[in-house]
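Researcher: Batch entry, complex prediction.
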Amino acid sequence: MALDKQTIYKISRLARIHVDKVDIDRYASQLSTILDFVEQMNRIDTDNVAPLSHPQDRVLRMREDSVTEHDRRDDLQSVAPMTENGLYLVPKVIE
Amino acid sequence: MERHRALNAFITVDPELSLNQARAADRMLKNGGSRPLTGIPIAHKDIFCTKGVLTTCGSKILSNFVPPYDATLIKRCYEEGMVTLGKTNMDEFAMGSSNETSYFGPVRNPWDQFRVPGGSSGGSAASVTARLCAAATGTDTGGSIRQPAALCGITGLKPTYGRVSRYGMVAFASSLDQGGVLTQSAEDAALLLNVIAGFDPLDSTSVEEPVPDYGSKLKDDIDGLKIGLPKQYFDEGLSPEVEVLIRDALRVLEDHGAVLIDIDLPNSELCVPCYYVIAPSEASSNLSRFDGVRYGYRSEDYEDLVDMYMRTRAEGFGDEVKRRIMIGTYALSAGYYDAYYLKAQKLRRLITHDFERAFELCDVIAGPTTPTAAFEIGAKTSDPISMYLNDIYTISVNLSGLPALSVPAGFAGDLPAGLQLIGPYFSESRLLNIGHRFQMDTEWHRRIPGGFE
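Model: Structure tokens for the complex:
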């Protein structure tokens, strides 16, 4: 699968990773090489095979619906780049 | 540690913490209440959150992150009275097989400082090899404990998926990641696994399965043990120098009464392509949390919110991490999900079936850990696929969630290579037993590189 510039731009938006114009060609060629490589998977017929998402086919454990966390807001916000009055600050979204 | 700074094995050392823990260990030893590993110096891969101590995961985006809590594995080591020597260097977000993707620079292999130590737990492997610490922790998503252990000539254990808590361990690919240990011997690995294994309610994938005393069966007889040799692990991809060492190592086990049988893992050659869909897909989801809002690095120059995300992530992540996030994003995107992600999940079942069938014929599976000994720094950085193929013998174990052990099998010239033993779910005791019997008869694990004695 050869990815074109347009597709790289789209992936970069979806992934929220800025790609400089000068790097687009490099990404296109590297990602295309990797996709070609993984497409070897198509050599095997998997039509009647169920997908495996947990390595031991287990389901996630359930627990009692009770409060297990206490308030650690100050602790957790102490490592944030910008906060004010217990809120995370980001650039203005609504004008 | 100061003298061997050139190895670049550590990202952070905290002498004050180490000394305080050493004093506390002394008190435990004097006043009673000590445990088997009290006072033993250990290094932790910088992927495990340590309260009050920088935890970078080898990335610029976490280069200022001081966690407000401890990982469960860290907590257990503290409670044991072990002494933390520092946080070890690693490939960025554990994505790499050479430790060259670290934001903090490559780690050098103590056997040859122009060569890689393997990855992603490269700093952990180098620090144990150089005897800077008695043992180290690591994580293994596609071989990241076993491969560096093999390339550095030490012992590395990747436990069964769910055996060791992942709480506080920075997530890469959640259906594959597993914490484990890098040590000087199988016996040490057993003692350390005793400390870190076990159920943890804080990790939803932690398994409620009884924890045996991993040290109790080390000396068991292996007479009659059936060892399966997958023909795919001894094909043309394996370097002849490593193959000789592996065949010799298997002969040692035969001398103990083990029986070698040929087995077939027909889908194993597709494990690398399968992995490079599943791991990046899960990574693209897991790493979406690094947004410059709640912790870590934030770009200084941006126009609006989306631009802040995009620039923060572009500046904060290295090339390999960006490649994988973008591959994963593509594989999960509308119109491509079935062709990539679903296809890989189906293949994953076939790969797991191969193991199930094999374990009907044999007790454990053995082969090389890596196709070659350590390569030179820079040799594979421009070719991602050749780097990925380093993990060809280790990746299928993660896809199937199995436990596996790598023990030093000898030297190709001056460079070590590893024998890999793979067992059924929760067979860690058996693997460590075989590793220990092997190490009772061999000296490879006792060899120390020149300048580090």
